[in-house]
Amino acid sequence: MASPAVSLGERHIGLFLAIAISSCASSGNVRVTPTPGLEQRVTITVSRGLQPEFRWSPDSGIGWLHVGRHDKDQLVWEIFSGDTASSMRQPIRYGVPPAGARAKPAIPLEPGVEYELSVGRIEPYRSTTLITQIARVRFRAEEAPPK
User: Fold this and answer.
1) What angle do CA 11, 72, 118 make, to 5 degrees?
2) pLDDT (tens digit, 9 = 90+) per residue, 23-47?
3) 139 in Cβ contact with 115 (< 8 Å)
4) Nearest-angstrom CA–CA distance, 80 and 64
5) Is 103 helix (H, G, I), strand (E, B) or coil?
6) Most buried of 17, 22, 24, 114 (most Cβ within 10 A)?
7) d(CA 88, CA 106)
8) What would you report as the CA-atom Rg of the chain, rounded to the nearest whole angstrom?
9) Distance between CA 114 and CA 139 in Å, rounded?
10) Going by DSSP bridges, is the β-strand pair 128-140/92-93 parallel, antiparallel, or unpaired?
11) The whole model's pTM is what?
12) Rounded mean pLDDT of 86-91?
């Protein structure tokens, strides 16, 4: 099991940066704000089911979201706003990117497997783009109860 200091989100930031850099309208400079200890300033809720809905509080726009399989250190879905702003609003359902967002195709979630969801902001700052992880949470994929 990985330590919190080296989370799935931080290990995959390189992939995210490659995608974000290719879409930045600025001078091409990107700076990642480090998140040692990652203060949890945002509360995330994940609904039940194999295609869960993600919500966060306080309600604000986010610039990126990614989900990884924790036991295999595998990225299973990633989306980011199609611009250099944090414009994606909640709720976001797994595998269904919001209008205007860019997405990696989602790999189906498996029942009983633990995943990690990370969300962050993308903000222009002077001649660079700041990419900041603002929250992460682990969740276990479960089949939704029958209705």
Assistant:
1) 45
2) 443 334 444 444 444 444 788 999 9
3) yes
4) 4
5) strand
6) 24
7) 17
8) 15
9) 6
10) unpaired
11) 0.70
12) 86
